[in-house]
Amino acid sequence: KEMPAMNQSRRLPSVVELDGKIYAIGGCGDENMPLQSVERYTTSSGWEFVKPLITARYSTDAVTLNEKIYVLGGLSKNILNDLKSVECYNPDSNTWTSCADMIKERMCFGAAAHNGHIYVSGGYGNLYRTVERYDP
To answer: Where is the signal peptide (predicted)?
Structure first.
């Protein structure tokens, strides 16, 4: 089934579900510029913008844990290397906060939440074999 279009075109965003809502986070927009914007989809309101990321980023990954959204790593326009920074979104207050960095910079990697921890693995370049447990 085709859904309504987002308000902003984006490629390489992170997409997660939290409490029955879909979030499209960051990505690249026009002219391949990283996006700070975040959109939330509900069946009653469609797509709407929520508070933007602190750092524009793409090729990141996101997970939900403890009723929050964690966005990890990726690339940003002001950084030539991968990011190791992490941001946390609280949907109740519509706010993003900076969290402790991951150990390594990563882009194009996998992430999953399990038993109160976030596990990240792989990535583009020399990081394919590494795995770390992130404790928010």
So the answer is: none
46: left (phi over 0), alpha (psi -120 to 50) or beta: left
Domains of the chain, residue spans: 14-107
Residue with tokens 């403890």: 66
For residue 122, give the nearest of 133, 107, 103 by alpha carbon: 107
Cβ 73 vs Cβ 61: under 8 Å: yes
Two structure tokens written together for 88: 């946390």
Give per-residue pLDDT as tens, 67-122. 999 999 999 976 667 899 999 999 999 999 999 999 988 999 999 999 999 999 98
**What is the pTM assigned to this prediction?**
0.94
